[in-house]
Give the backbone structure.
Amino acid sequence: MMRSYDVVIIGAGSVGTILSYWLAKKGLEVAVIEKNASVGRGEHRAAIGGVRATHSDPAKIKIGLRSLEFLRELEREFGFDVDYVEGGYLFPAYQESIASKLKSLLAVQQKIGLEIDWIGPDQVAALVPGIREEGLLGGTYSPRDGHLSPLKLASAFYQMALSAGVEFYFRTRVTGFVLEGGRVAEIKTDGPSLSPGLVINAAGSNAREIGLLLGTDLPVVPDAHEAGVTEPVERFFYPMVVDIEPTADSENYYFYQDPEGSVLFCITPKPKRLGATKASTSEFLPMVVPRLLRLCPRLRYLRVRRVWRGMYPGTPDDRPIVGFDRNVQGVFHAVGMCGQGLMLGPGLGQLVADRLVGELAPEDEDVFELLSPYRDFTAKELLR
Amino acid sequence: MMIARLTEHPILNVRKGELVEFSFDGKKMQGQAGEMLSTALIANGVKVFSRHRSGDAPQGIFCANGQCAQCTVIVNGLPVKSCITPLEKGMVVETLNHLPKLPHAAPDLPAHPPRELTCDVLVVGAGPSGIRASVELGQLGFSVIVVDDKAEPGGKLVLQTHKFFGSVEDCFAGTRGHVIGQILGEEMRQTPGVKVIPNSTVAALYSDGKAAVFEENRRYTHVSFRGLIAATGARERSLVFPGNDLPGVYGAGAFQTLVNRDLVKAAGRVLVVGCGNVGLIAAYHALQAGITVVGLVDIAPEVTGYKVHGDKIRRMGVPIYLRHTVLCVEGDGMVERATIAPVDSDGRPLLEEAKTFAVDTVLIAVGLASVDEYFADAQEFGFPVVKTGDADEIAEASSAMLGGRIAGRKMARLLGKDTPVPEEWREKMEILKSRPGRVMEREKPILSRETFRPVFHCMQEIPCDPCTTVCQFDSIKLKGETGTIMDLPEFDGKCIACGLCAAICPGLAITLARLSPNPGMAEVVLPHEFSTAYEAGSQIPICDLDGNVLGQGTVLKQRYFRKYGTHLITVEVPEEWAHLAAGIRVQPEGDVQPLSEAEFQYFPEDGIVCRCERVTVKEILDFARENPIHDLNQLKAIRVSMGACGGKTCNVLVPRILGQAGVDPSSLAPATRRPVTVEIPMWAIGNQEQDGEA
């Protein structure tokens, strides 16, 4: 007999796993279908570990703040140490245009409750000993952003979900949906079929394919980002440093040092590298390393250990797509995290769960308006 | 201070390099310029290179191959793997304590801008298979770049001081491995179109058709290629037991690197774990370097390597403990004791029968695992790729030589040049790869008083034929059912006691014998590979095939065959030993005795599984009890495989450990495949802006 669940989530990644926990905690019977063999083996594992509420979009700031609050409590409330460190985020500026762009966002950010301010060059240099001081104008610093181990977080989410009663179907691929009366009667997979009360699409890089199986074309297009990790050295800085000054062949890049001592780094190539291949390319290190060394010459003594590639499930306005499907009843999308599933997932999971059981606080309703799948996608996130 | 350099060796020439001064933790030391820093340190008695941030645990040499990071030290302010860093005059070397500090400035970094190279075929690894593949491709007109991480080509042949098995025609059987390495290296150098980049490691393969190469520790290079040959060899498997992380526990291959390539006396007394060919040969190499071998241990019921190797070791006076396991290794910051115990029919150790040996080194020789990551990468990326040698299948170097030629031809075909692979090559390679076959009883040879004749102590089918090729009267032929070089040699014809068959035999398994003019006595000629000079008339202990001492024999004369690096020692023994006498005991029995009482504490869950991050059996079992495990990657949450070596050592060990927690190892998704781990400094990658300064 086909198993029935109140909710079936497609994707055990940054969003789906923690969402399954919150829904199960609300008394629902929840299953998660995942094509990989364990939790967080899609794009989650490729994240370097930064978590911030420092965005330009109000919805994302709100979700980010929720995530940070959750992460701060994770060890005390749930007993999981995920190497979360409140190291802050630092956006340095060497050009007036960058400085004014960063400063222009402060009002909105602070209004929503983000702790962030402009700091002078001396403070920037004190936060990142060895950063180039010549021409440094200062930067924005948000001390309550931070970083964590994505692998430990996935493991924690998995244990939390299991203990809340969530059932996982690993190595299982969704192959189709049987619709009856405008609702999903059955989820077909290459394993067992499931009967869902509600279907949640949290399929990350595969969100569009899942949508298409339902007849909904979600504008989620993955683009590739490469990352690297160095050997560990004694901790010498704490913030995630994000340089948003573009060059001819790349947009921003960012790096931080994890509690093990390794420096992790990533860059956004220009133009976007669309497609879903996860194989590393030769262009990454020659693109990112000179920029890192120009910003912080001291990094030259670090040795790179490994590189890898992951996908940013992007949307036209760099904002997630969150909300009910209008074509098929009982289908909810939580997709298009644009490479920020790790930092948005914990907060978004709570908000979506609240929303689905009708417990959403009135002040959070705007989040779902701003992230609606049916918005016009014209506004741009400035700090992607 | 103890200087642990070999001053003489029965097989190898002891090189005397230019001595230079350097300092280690403020102490002045001397080493040979250009030798690996780890070797210089070991020669100066240093056993601990770093202290791990987890538990301040001392870290000794482990892979000696640039793959782990245990030998990392600080040189002139920056961390380096000392086993791949050549010693330079005036180096300021320090123990790495926990994590290195990132300096603000460091002196004189090389300024070699990155470069781009192009070739038809990139061959990764210049061992026997890589060399032969590149020669084949070069001869067929392809441009070839061979990248190898060592200074000299030959791969692990460089470490092999013993005479090789196999066939004389196809793989230089009867010649010593390190000499074969030189011959092959020369072959490669002479081949047009083949460019060798030594001392350099392929650090990554990229999906856009390039390989990242870290050249000579100073230059970041991209090599573009049409096809790839993965001749990347193998890595040593490790073993989990309490104390497996103590300095002094390491691989037999690493040991051979230190003793045979670098000629340092890396140990005083060793226990070898594993009695396959690698363990047996390592034990023999230890003896030749003047190191005591207290025994070999293996859980198997019989010697798994060639019988002739095992017999040889026993004759030298090394006990082989079969159906035994290593329980634990103990000591204060380094190996001082190793305890072994027999196992019951379920493989459980019988603690009450444990034996403890005083040793300073435990060599792990429990098998090899193919280094095939680049092959897998290339397949995934859709590049023409062929793997060969140990990267393809763990086997003898003899078969790798043919395998390399075949790989070269296959690659040529993949690149559009139709070159058939002779069927004969394939057949021969299969034979050379053969596991040891049947063991046959031999008839007692009939001896005469007039002439010597060979007596064969080789009784197991193995691929080997040198003895048949050196007899000027063609009196030795292989006879048997296989019709191949697996058959055993038989004597039929004339013998003038020239001794060549005894001198060339890789197994030291041929003696010559005749009845002596003295009634009741016989003369036996024994092969010997130690540099002892025996005086005529002296009494020496003579052993039978299994290592039992028959009694004393009287030395009549000693001959040395320079070409084979082998002594032939003629002894007079009682007639009834004539066909039994097989060798001369080297180690006194008293040297290999265990302590009078076993002395150990056994906490099996203390064994280290992930060496880089120091994750124990217990931590893995605890994690598995709290989490359903279906993917090896889940263990990254407790840092398994997250360290320097990228899971190369632990990922093969973890499934069995998880089995103890009730996880079905076959159900586990594999861990992420990672490249061979060699770090590349950012300065090398970012050097492009320094073109002008270079």
Summary: The longest strand of chain B covers residues 549-561.
